[in-house]
Amino acid sequence: MKKEFAVIGLGRFGGSICRELSREGMEVLAIDLDEDKVNEYKDIAGHAVIADSTDENVLRELGMRNIDHVIVAIGDNIQASILTTLMLKELGIKTITVKAQNDYHEKVLSKIGADHVVHPERDMGKRIAHNIISNNILDYIELSDDHSVVEVKAGSKMSGRTLVDLDIRAQYGCNVVAIKRKKDVIVSPMATEEIRESDVLIVIGADNDISRFEKNLVVED
Ligand code: ATP
């Protein structure tokens, strides 16, 4: 059976999730208080309805119980976002993803059982900052408060050297989990793998360790 999604709040973030899920052929129920927003998504999502998600009866009437994954993308109204999440939780929704506005909001959402709390502006800010620090850092994904995965261009400092020679695990405490080489991906590369300048390395580790690795082996002098 096809997974069913609902997106509550059709601002830029919720709207973009709604568009992308629909484009991927997913069944999406789009919900917003604002009639204009709902009209905008009528032809994009499977169903688009004007509704107030803080009204428990409305959520029931919409058949929310049968939805597999609900994305709560209510922006400024933190109270509405928390209340909606709480009620979705009570309805027994399997997976709830909520956009947090700030750290306090995030804390409350985690406490009341939101499965995923996202902070798109903050996370994108961090990713862009890492990209600005070094042109060789292509992407950055936060795993926890102090662990991440980065995607880096190998560059000249690592070119022609093997993983064992660079001794990344012992020297920097991080692991190269994959190497992207043109169209190939080498998963769990051998220690004897020789790195090419144009390779892209996927590195996992503690932020402090990754930072030392970046400084010494990635950032060009
Ligand atoms: P963006 O996602 O565009 O960066 P944002 O996070 O500030 O911005 P808003 O512009 O506030 O998001 O958009 C949130 C949407 O959620 C609005 O379209 C608003 O009408 C809708 N919304 C707010 N409260 C409710 C509610 N109780 N039920 C349904 N929709 C709601």
UniProtKB/TrEMBL annotation:
InterPro entries: NAD(P)-bd_dom_sf (IPR036291), RCK_C (IPR006037), RCK_C_sf (IPR036721), RCK_N (IPR003148), Trk_Ktr_HKT_K-transport (IPR050721). Residues 2-118 form the RCK N-terminal domain. It comes from the Bacteria. Residues 135-219 form the RCK C-terminal domain. One of its GO terms (biological process) is potassium ion transport. GO terms for molecular function: monoatomic cation transmembrane transporter activity. This is TrkA family potassium uptake protein.
